[in-house]
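Hey, sorry to bother you again with one of my protein questions. A protein chain has come my way and I'm curious about its shape. I'm sending you its amino acid sequence along with the backbone structure tokens. I owe you a coffee for this, so here goes:
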Amino acid sequence: MVEPLISVVVPVYNVEDYLARCVDTITRQTYKRLEIILVDDGSTDRSGAMCDDFARQDDRIEVIHKINGGLSDARNVGIDRARGDFITFIDSDDSVELDMVEYLLGLIDRFGVDVSLSSHTVVFDDHKKILGDGREECLTAEECIRKMLYHRDVDTSAWAKLYRREIFDAIRYPVGRLFEDIATTYKTFIAGGRVACGYVSKYNYFVRGTSIVRAKFSARKFDLLDMTDGMAREVVERYPSLARAAMRRRVYARFSTLNQLDGVEGYVDERRRMIDFIKEHRREIMSDGEAPLRDKAAILCLALGEGAYHFAWRLFKHK
């Protein structure tokens, strides 16, 4: 039996300090039948030249040089070029465990599904947080999305997942938008029908100051609200039983954006709309037995005023 070909799509943009680490963990995978697609998204540093060097060293590597169009555009280009039976995405400033592909493919084989996922490790400058308790299970799309909406075991990231190529026949990432994974990952679960979940860390997500979440605030970060609200509407339309979970996620998106606005001047109207939304739906969250206690504590703090909320948030995030 011929082993499936796995397409590994890696968007690349100005990551010359991290790219070699990423590519090294891909080329040394225990699963060897790989098609590694490096999409140079108009890099202005040495990243593009480094991609070409890697391709000369490993004939499994294909390089695409394109005009800068953003992460979604780069992923879409990689999807269009992929010839594999399955696709996985890896961000070029991250790394993966050497058996990640083998593990994800093993989940797909064992459970007979078209989508699988693993947990990950969050790597900070001075410490790391390893997620996952070692369990494995197969969930329906509805069950998997419920976990995702409550931030339990499953996240919205494109990476740390393996998808049968046909999953993307009708799915692409929204070009020009931030938080594009939120608008897309749930669709892959729906298209797959069932998801094999392995709560074992196989992906290393490096948190840097230039990451989208930690970078200086800009109005584009309000995309988080649009992406979350769009996901919630489609999820509830398909799975009415997830209405409370979807509302929890929408409220969380407002809190997350308020957190990023801490210490930032302006955006008065936007702040007021987010706070009004949270207050309008606070009873739904407070009465939801599945909503995290952190959400409920945040609602109680916000009731004391935005200043009190930000003070409490600073104490919480530095614990």
